[in-house]
Amino acid sequence: MRWPSTRRLVPQRPLTGRPFALSRGTALDIGLAVGGTGLDVLVSAGSWSGGSGPAPAWVGTGFALLAGLPMGLVRRWPGPVAVYLSVLLVVCDQIGAFTVNTLQVLLPISVGVLARSRGWGWTAPVAVLASAATAVNLADPGIALTSNTWSYSVGLIAAPVLIGRYLRGQEGRRKEDPAPLLDLLLAGGGVALSVLTTWPYWHGGEPPVWAVALGVMLAGLALGVVRHLPGAVLLLESLALVVADQYVPRAGNSLQLLALVALGVFATRAAWPWVSAAYALTCSVAAIVVVDDPGDITLFRVVALMTMVTAPVAIGRYVGVRQAQARHAAELTAERDRAGRLAERERIAREVHDIVAHHVGAMVLRASAAQYAGAGGPAAEALADIRDTGHRVLEDLRGLLAVLRDPDEALGSDLTLANMLADPGDVLRDAVSRMSAAGLRVDLRLAPEVERAPLVVRASAARIVQEGLTNVLKHAGPGARAEVDVGIRPDALTVEVRNGPGTSRPPDVLPSHGQGIAGMRERARAFGGHVTAGPAEGGGWRLAASLPVPRESRSECRMTGRFA
């Protein structure tokens, strides 16, 4: 559809049912803040009053808010949030607050978000700061930083940086199938997270170290298929958590994040009853892992655990809604584009019809007038032929215009493309007869097996023959000899138009638009075929075309007919 060069842009109405808050990402920010706070409450509540530590509950709640609430700003200001969490990690380490365990999880997440949304000017210094803060937290008081400590500190921050930079590099790139790369990224991230957060505890359980390492890596690798089998991965992660809690308790707390990721992915596509069941399962497994003494179960800790598990469900449902809206918007855009193309096609068809119909109509009227004026002999026959051909051209134009305007209605009625096309064999014979009447001597060899080729392929071959014979008449002149060969090969319908040298006298100059060969090549290319044209051996010209057909047509037999 052609638009004027200056137009007023009208804002589009939002999609029906799309909440204003969700469109601005507020729900996601709230979910991140609540999830971070709930994670610290779940991890650190045992150190509050009534637990193993001396800190009162209000102090622990304050630290949980200090650590978790900034995650609500991490999407907009990842750099300042990462710097803040690094400083808070060092402060909590110096005063002995249990919130350091939560910060060791939230800090790599914020650095990964920073690496995805900002350049190296922000990412590099913040990553160095985060690694240093992690090393300070891992080093025991009075003990120098060891190479193992630095390796763990750098690896813990380097993994999310690499993931974030990879995701940033993929933005704006069109890939035919990005799914394998995304699955590989999830698997690598899962392994990195599970190994880096659990390897200090591999020696603390009953199983051998190799068995613990294998189980941890399998739990991380399972994220590679979480997009395809989220329910199965959630069950696997839940089983891994229960087994780890039984044999390697401290590793179970670290692996819990994998189960929360699987729950979030599951929530993006499952129905609410299944999401509720998965939520209950995750809460139960988290309670088994977190609660060591039944006496520690309080209403506050139960609410905190349920809140933490609610965060991935809320984020997953939010992402699922946004994905559905994106698909719906893409479908609407595609439909609008299609409607615009159809409207433009109809406009062009109407203009072509009007132009061609005007000139053909004028030609028919002049031929009829000349015929009625008393023309006789060959001139009268030529005028009658022009008039009949013009009438057929006008009928074909009207039929094609009807198909372009409404293909479904036209194809559902008697006006089908098959009815509009004459039999290709008749078209070939008619073309040979016309050229013979104009003075060409034409030999037509048409294989009977050609009838088994698709109608559209035979029709295109007939049009190529028509154009080829017209070119012979234009350039070789009356009296020249032309040979037309239409046959079948195992994989294609073949056309060959060959003519010898032209007559001694120059041919009459006939109208030519200069697009004959180009049009034949375009017609053949539409079927995956090709057209070649050039001088023939011994003089003259040779035109050859190959149009692919189904393999059922295999015969090379030909039927010979002569028209002179």
TrEMBL record:
Membrane-traversing stretches: 21-43, 55-74, 81-100, 150-167, 179-202, 208-226, 272-291, 298-319
Keywords on record: ATP-binding, Kinase, Membrane, Nucleotide-binding, Phosphoprotein, Transferase, Transmembrane, Transmembrane helix, Two-component regulatory system
SUPFAM superfamilies xrefs: ATPase domain of HSP90 chaperone/DNA topoisomerase II/histidine kinase (SSF55874)
A molecular-function term among this protein's GO annotations: kinase activity
Catalytic activity, reaction form: ATP + protein L-histidine = ADP + protein N-phospho-L-histidine
Residues in Signal transduction histidine kinase subgroup 3 dimerisation and phosphoacceptor domain copies: 344-408
EC number: 2.7.13.3
One Pfam family matching this protein: HATPase_c
Protein name (record): histidine kinase
